[in-house]
Predict the 3D structure of the following.
Amino acid sequence: IKTSKKLPEDFLWGGATADFQFEGGFDEGGRGILSHDYETDGSQEHPRHHTLQMPDGTIITPQSNFKDAEDVPEEAVPVFVKGQYYPSHKAVDFYHHYKEDIKLMAEMGFNVYRFSICWTRIYPTGEEDQPNKAGLDFYNNVINELKKYNMEPLITICHDELPMNLVLKYGGWSSKKVVDAYVKYAKTLFENFGDRCKYWLTFNEINAIRGFGQLGVRKADGKERYQADHNMFLASAKVVKIGHKMMPGSKFTAMYAMSELYPATCKPEDMFHHLQEHRENWYFIDIMARGYYPSYAPVIWQHHGFDKVDMEPEDAEILREGQLDFVSFSYYRSNITKDGDPWFNIGGEANPYLKKTQWGWSVDPLGLRYCMNEIYDRIQKPIFIVENGLGAVDQADENDYVEDDYRIEFLQEHLSAMADAINIDHVPCLGYTMWGPIDLVSLGTGEMKKRYGFVYVDMDDKGHGTLKRTPKKSYNWMKHIIKTNGAAL
Ligand code: BG6
């Protein structure tokens, strides 16, 4: 069926960033050390890693990412190693460029900007009694600048990060102390920014984070991880309840890595395996958006080698009272899975029917429409696409101008699929924030070469460059799409 791609009048168009990939200023304004600050740069061939030191002075460099995360010896402590480049320290320096960057976004027609607050700018160790004034001032300035252009802030309270102190002292989310620290931190945000901010996101890609410095637990799997996840569910639910009370009309979500997972074939064993593996994602959405543990939870726990997550009697009520108002997710690709594959929530092989990006991610616009329908059918709450985009190598000319027709094509196809889900399938979708509207550091590989933006930033993988911002060809294309509210797609 062909229908108009024009979207509802109140649709939110914008972009999304994370503090440690975008902001920089890591030793300014009293900011404390974050778990990400010890992560080096890398590439597709050479994974980024954390730099840690053993008691005898030996430096060890365990990989930091996802399922490849190695168990980290208890005695290892993080250190900065001379000569290593740590991208979070400078990122692309939004800290000093925020006025210019917000102006560029506003001129494209954005009416929403999703950004994460750096926890250690507000509480440098996570444990202070009083928040850091310079940190509050910085985000107050950012929010006021957004409001000047009528842009709605969508605030990620925690984007895969922890104050390093909380990782070292308490083992991260394994400890209830960290739940308390998070609740205190979130309350401070509501007190200071709640008068101007309606949309809040408690955790980024909560189903995907694992490993040292992200969950803050040192083992990447098993009971320790699911117990830490339980603490995050409680932290999110507590904050949702408090937020609703402190800011009437506020809307809360958490964010899921929902790149679509298909069965490799229609063989019943592959289909059933797909159902089970897919539940590794639903687990998170079901608990947080429906407010209770689903009946299949024990199957997942047993698969990971333990019988049950330990819970206090009051936990069920906390989860019920702190349900999310809407479901947000990132969508980059689709993967396939077959009988015998490991259960992993964002894993799988690339879909053989699809072309791939330079980083091997399958390009699947229809998968976005599929995913939107699937989530809404299941949860029956509005959705919000808070990350999508194409990471590609851009060739800038002598004026730093990039003709990124491949990015336009990617976005055209994905936004059309999104419009079809809204206009044909009637999925209520609040908005779309493209990942990295201004080039930023890649999370997965720590490089600048993998660029997502509408705006080129003159900086290389090691942080060299003028940091000058230059709109790409896609900038004006997107501006037109937003101006017509999707009709020009
Ligand atoms: C999501 C994260 O996983 O994907 C972002 O929330 C990340 O922080 C994005 O940047 C894209 O991944 P990458 O590895 O290309 O930066």
In short: The CA atoms of residues 173 and 215 lie 6 Å apart. Residues 223-246 form the longest helix (24 residues). Residues 18, 21, 204-205, 257, 330, 387, 391, 435, 442-444, 450 surround 6-O-phosphono-beta-D-glucopyranose (CB under 6 Å).
